[in-house]
Structure prediction request, 270 residues.
Amino acid sequence: MPEYLYPGVYVEEIEAQPLPIPGVSTSLDRAALTSIAADFRRTMGAYAPGWTDLNDSDPSVTLIEVFAFLSENLLYRVGEVSERARVPARRAAAALDALAQATEAPGCGALTRPRYFEGKLLDAAALTAEQEYHREKRRLHNRTIFGFGVVSGLGVSVEPAGASGGERVLVEPGYAIDRLGEEIRLPRGVSVAAPSSGDSAFVTLHYWERPCAPTPTLDGTTAASKIEEACVLALKSAVADPAIPLARLTRIEGAWRVDPAFETPKILRA
Prediction:
C-alpha cells in the first residue's frame, strides 16, 4: 500500500531486496475450477446461443477452462492485490461487460454511451457507465493527440546527505500523461529518502485511484462515496507500464546521482 504524503500524492519506496509473497498457494482447487467453468458456460449460453460446447475436445471448452483457471487464481489472490493493481482489473471487467452487452445488442460499437429514455432505470451502473464514457473519450484524446510523457516540470535531483540525515531525492511539481491516456498531476514538490541499497533505481510516477469518503448505505453497511484521483511517486529497480520514468539514479562512489544519459519521455508542446 502506497504511503500517504499529502492530498493526491502517495509514495512507494524501493525494496532493499526481493520479498517473497506470503500465503500464495501453488495448488488449484478443482471444485472451484469446475464451478467457475460451469458459470462461464451458462453465461456464454445466454449471450451467445451459437457458442459451441459439444465435448471436452471442443475449442470453446478449452477457452472456458483457461478463463476459469485465471479467475480462480484472481479470486484466491484478491486479498493480496493492492488497490493500485485493482484499477486495471476494474477496467478489464468493464470492457468484458461492454463486450457482453454488444453481443446482446448487435450494432453497438466498441465505445458506447448510455441512451436515456422515459422509464429507463437509472441505477449506479448506468451512472458509472456515463462517467466511464467521458473518461475514456478523454483518454483516447490524450493518447491520440499528445502521446505520453512529461508535459511540464517533474525534474529530479539528489540532495546530498547533510546534518539532518541521508541523501534525499527531490521531484519538482509538474504534469504528465501516461500510456493509457491518464492525466497525472504532482501539485507540489516531493522529497523522499534515497534508496538504502542497490546501485541503480528509477524514479517513476503513475496514476492511482483510491475509494474514499465511506458513507452509510440502505442495507446498513458502508460504501465509498468518492474516488480520489491521485498519483504515486516510486523508487523502483525497474519501470512497469503504465508508470512514467522520470529519471534513472545511479550510485557512484557511495553517492546517488541522476544519470544524465537517461532520456525521460516528454510531450513536446507547440
Summary: The chain has a mean pLDDT of 79. Residues 143 and 181 are 5 Å apart (CA to CA).
